[in-house]
Specification:
With 219 residues, the protein is α+β, with helices and mostly antiparallel strands. The protein has 2 domains: 32 residues; 185 residues, no CATH class. It contains 4 helices and 11 strands, in the order αββαββββααβββββ. Strands 1, 2, 3, 4, 5, 6, 7, 8, 9, 10 and 11 form an 11-stranded antiparallel sheet that branches. It is globular, with a radius of gyration of 21 Å. The relative contact order is 0.15.
């Protein structure tokens, strides 16, 4: 019995060590790449594909983070129209008890989350999510490309990045359950090293070009 337990724990220790080494290897590869290199990471179990790369901005960050500060549903509606080109609706105060303030459309197809500092921290377009389920009806040659999707995500993030930011690290994630779904995580960087300034998460539907989800974690 004791020998059996020893073998069991030894096996778990070896497995844990292998996992740690794998994670460290991925982190080491990520931190050592140059601005012109990209690293592809694939999760074989989930069939999730990730690509990490560095990109130079066509123009420095816009420094407009204060523009995300809203106090009313009307102000939130204007921010979405001006900076995210989301139009054709009006937001109202969500009366439900939630951890953070939020504004929604009357049909609950659009939701905007606001943090304790009154800044917008999340945008969810439920209508776009529902429409993406029918994306297979659109021929793939009509989809916007990954590069076009990436450029769109960068354009959404650029106004809110610090004026000193001229380069970003972009992690592109594609999911097997919906191959038109693509997610970009944008983080400020300098000469390949990540810097402070938070991160910007954008989910797009390549079949329609619609923005489905935006999360802002900007300091």
């Amino acid at each position: 019995m004791i020998k059996h337990l020893k073998k069991k724990y030894l096996g778990l220790s070896v497995l844990g060590l292998a996992t740690i080494l794998t994670v460290c290897t991925v982190l080491l590869v990520n931190t050592q790449r140059t601005p012109n290199e990209s690293v592809a990471i694939s999760d074989q179990k989930m069939n999730i594909q990730e690509t990490v790369e560095l990109a130079k901005l066509s123009k420095p960050g816009g420094g407009q983070i204060q523009s995300l500060t809203v106090n009313t549903a009307e102000e939130a509606t204007l921010v979405l129209q001006k900076y995210f080109n989301l139009t054709g609706f009006s937001l109202i105060q969500d009366e439900r008890e939630v951890a953070t303030a939020s504004y929604v459309t009357e049909d609950n197809s659009m939701r905007v989350w606001v943090g304790n500092n009154k800044k917008i921290i999340g945008i969810n377009d439920m209508k776009a999510f529902k429409e993406s389920k029918n994306s297979n009806e659109i021929q793939k040659e009509q989809w916007i490309s990954i590069d076009q999707s990436k450029e769109k995500a960068i354009q959404l993030a650029q106004p809110f990045l610090d004026v000193s930011v001229q380069e970003v690290q972009i992690t592109t994630t594609q999911y097997p359950h919906n191959d038109s779904l693509i997610e970009f995580e944008i983080v400020p960087s300098s000469e390949g090293n990540l810097t402070s300034g938070g991160r910007f998460l954008v989910t797009l539907d390549r079949s329609t070009g619609a923005i489905m989800n935006i999360n802002l974690f900007l300091s």
